[in-house]
Amino acid sequence: MTTTTGQTTAPEVETTLDPSATPSARPGRRRGDDLAAWLFLAPYLLLFGVFVLLPIVLGVWISLHSWDFTLPGKPWVGIQNYRDLFTPGSVTFDPFWNSMQATGIFTLFSVPLLIVVPLVVALVMNQKFPGRNLFRAVYFAPYVLGVAVVGVLWRYLLDANIGAVNAYLGRLGLPADTTWLSSLPEAWIAMVLVTVWWTLGFNAVIYLAGLQDIPKELYEAAKVDGATPWSQFRYVTLPGLRPVTMFVTLTTIIASANMFGQAFIMTNGAPARETRTAIFYIAETGLQDFQMGEAAAASWILTVALMLLALVVFGVFRARGSVES
Question: Are residues 104 and 215 in the same domain?
């Protein structure tokens, strides 16, 4: 069309949208997207249901029965298995709580070392020096070994008669007749130190990733303000590592509380069942004595205790973060 000035204008364009093109009018496409998402999730959900949810439900069910899997009858006993574990004088009370005490001892002494020592190693690995990659590999290498390998290796190294550790101590003029695996507190010292040697590499790698994620500008600003290396570590490094430290703390507590292989292979619970941990007791009760109901009840008590401890750890880190902020 033309105007009075003689200029030609563009033809008017129809702006009415086709209702079928609106998002609300395409439910078939949305259903297709949802279907595709569920298809991708299906393998994970299947494995999660079979290997996580089903064992949880079955564990609760077994704990409510007198469950001996070698016998056809598995009578319902309700909460009797739990009541026995909390009743002094019962058959299961002393063995179970002695094993919980052993678990607490191991966790109490291993967790602080597995938090502090890997942090020191990570701080060293984060520096630039010749052979840094070799240093990292040496500290992480033991973690790739299985617990059976580690247990058997150190069982021979710490043997009171033919062990290399006592032989080396004798050459240094130190007592060479220490019974590392059959007396207290030597057995606890041996298992804690072996566990630290074995697993510190994993925590050190996690710390190292956290250190490399802290912005370097924060350290430069701290140096400009005259902060000492200790002040930089206290006010820059530690706050920057708070989420990593919480993760390391939680995973280390859970791993230590579930310690079984070291006690089973290295000491077999000696001396006098003093190093038999809760998982050791559960496995022995369920798989050796065939009392799966009592073992399932004990495992749920341990699970609840770990959940409460995890909540405490979350609360401590949250409270500390609120104070520092």
Answer: yes
Cβ 244 vs Cβ 98: under 8 Å: no
Of 293, 114, 306, 282, the closest CA to residue 192 belongs to: 114
**SS3 of residue 2 by DSSP:** strand
Query: 256, 250, 219: which is closest to 234 by C-alpha?
Result: 219
More confident residue, 116 or 9: 116
Q: Is residue 149 part of a domain?
A: yes
Would you tell me how many other CB atoms lie within 10 Å of the CB of residue 145? 12
Residue 29 reports pLDDT greater than 60: no
Whole-number pLDDT of residue 173: 87
pLDDT of residue 320: 76
Residues 217 and 284 in one domain: yes
Top pLDDT among 4 and 163 is at 163
pTM value is 0.85
Cα–Cα distance list, 187 to 41, 142, 224, 233 (Å): 46, 21, 50, 35
Residues 46 and 155 in one domain: no
Count the neighbouring beta carbons within 10 Å of the beta carbon of residue 257: 22
Alpha-carbon distance of 212 to 223, in angstroms, equals 18
Q: 258 with 107: CB under 8 angstroms?
A: no
Question: What is the domain extent for residue 32?
Answer: 28-60
Q: Would you place residue 6 in the very low, low, confident or very high pLDDT band (cuts 50, 70, 90)?
A: very low
* Of 151, 139, 132, 113, the residue nearest 259 (C-alpha): 151
If asked whether residues 55 and 109 sit together in one domain, one would say no
Return phi, psi of residue 303, to 5°.
Answer: -65, -45
The CA-based dihedral angle spanning residues 16, 21, 25, 31, taken in that order and rounded to the nearest 10 degrees: -170
> DSSP letter at 65?
B
